[in-house]
Amino acid sequence: MSMDETHGGSMVSAILFSIVLLLLLGRTADAQRSLEFFDLLPEDPKLYDKMRPPKKDGQATIVYFHVTVMGLDSIDENSMTYAADIFFAQTWKDNRLRLPENMTSEYRLLEVDWLKNMWRPDSFFKNAKSVTFQTMTIPNHYLWLYKDKTILYMVKLTLKLSCAMNFLIYPHDTQECKLQMESLSHTTDEMIFQWDPDVPLVVDENIELPQLQLVKNYTADCTQVYSTGNFTCLEVVFVLKRRLGYYLFHTYVPTCLIVIMSWVSFWIKPEAAPARVTLGVTSLLTLSTQHAKSQASLPPVSYLKAVDAFMSVCTVFVFMALMEYCLVNIVLGDSDTPPKPASPPQPPSSSGTDAAKLDKIFDIATKKSTTGPPPGPTPAQRARMRALNIDRVSRVFFPFLFAVLNVTYWIMFAEYI
């Protein structure tokens, strides 16, 4: 082999080695290059319209929802609102996108800011008063792209939501508070919301509320027909039952004790007017304060609530106990007029001394010869007996009637306890 041939072979080997090295470096550079948004768009970016939903075969785009409820609190009956901390997830498929090259994992994390240039569901919380997006320690949201071109967008939110409450049987009521999510601009011909078929809703089992108990939660459809068309809507329903313990010890028991306290006047003698009147008026004023206290946390509704009916009847009982003493005082006061003074005896005259003596002897003899019945009770004694009888009847009638009221009331609302 000549020197020229040896030199030529070395040159060819060097060139081949350089080409292989350049290819490896190019692949390494491609592998290390960060993913850009334009890498996801079709080869012709003009074919991608972020305002049009990614329909397939003319069918409406289906968006799957998942909600994780981490907390419920700040339930305010006066403003009819409540607060909820949730993780809100939306999943949809966009076949117009391209997958990144060399995507080996099941999903890839994308920049959340890319959503501004992509089509995304225009969902909003229909009954929300305010929405707070969590930003500590980083913005609490992320965007995933799966191998089948499915996009998952997850965000953590704190919501203040309205809840239409009915207080007709308060405090034995059960309220249904909703979390509604509706499409803003896409009708059901273009987009449909559906709950995730696997896990649509997760509610933390450790949720504790001071006066209400979360007894049930479920998902439902709230799609409505507007003048512009049908707009898809989904909702989460929280069934909240009021705990009766607080109202039992702070409203019902004190009210019953005030009514029973007003009956003490039936055992006070009728002549003690200051004691009986003071007790009745004090009981009435205390009960009025108790009634106003029970209404402090509720809106001024126009209908009668269950607690209003109970408190009103108790007020009538206290008022009737006060009126009972008015009747006793009237019966007792008819005999309070002082008796007429006896006429002074006539002075004996000198001329009729003998005749007066004879009349006196005759009267004494008549009294001794005739025995009549003993004199009866005076009018004052009879009036006092009538007053005492009214008190005796009231001691039995008032407690019996109040017991009937309580038994009837608690039987009526036994199913709500």
UniProtKB/TrEMBL annotation:
Neurotransmitter-gated ion-channel ligand-binding domain sequence ranges: 48-243
TM regions (residue ranges): 247-268, 309-332, 393-412
Primary localisation category: membrane
InterPro entries: GABAA/Glycine_rcpt, Neur_chan_lig-bd, Neur_chan_lig-bd_sf, Neur_channel, Neuro-gated_channel_TM_sf, Neuro_actylchol_rec, Neurotrans-gated_channel_TM, Neurotransmitter_ion_chnl_CS
Membrane association type: Multi-pass membrane protein
All copies of domain Neurotransmitter-gated ion-channel transmembrane, residue ranges: 251-332
CDD domains found in the cross-reference section: LGIC_ECD_HisCl, LGIC_TM_anion
Keyword terms of this UniProt record: Cell membrane, Ion channel, Ion transport, Membrane, Receptor, Signal, Transmembrane, Transmembrane helix, Transport
Signal sequence coordinates: 1-31
Places the protein is found: Cell membrane; Membrane
One of the record's GO cellular component terms: plasma membrane
Keyword Methyltransferase found: no
Keyword Ion transport: yes
UniProt GO molecular function: chloride channel activity; extracellular ligand-gated monoatomic ion channel activity; ligand-gated monoatomic anion channel activity; transmembrane signaling receptor activity
A Pfam family reported for this protein in Swiss-Prot or TrEMBL: Neur_chan_memb
Recorded family membership: Belongs to the ligand-gated ion channel (TC 1.A.9) family.
Name the record gives this protein: Glycine receptor subunit alpha-3 isoform X2
Organism of derivation: Bombus bifarius
The organism's taxonomic lineage, starting at the top: Eukaryota, Metazoa, Ecdysozoa, Arthropoda, Hexapoda
Protein encoded by which gene: LOC117215093
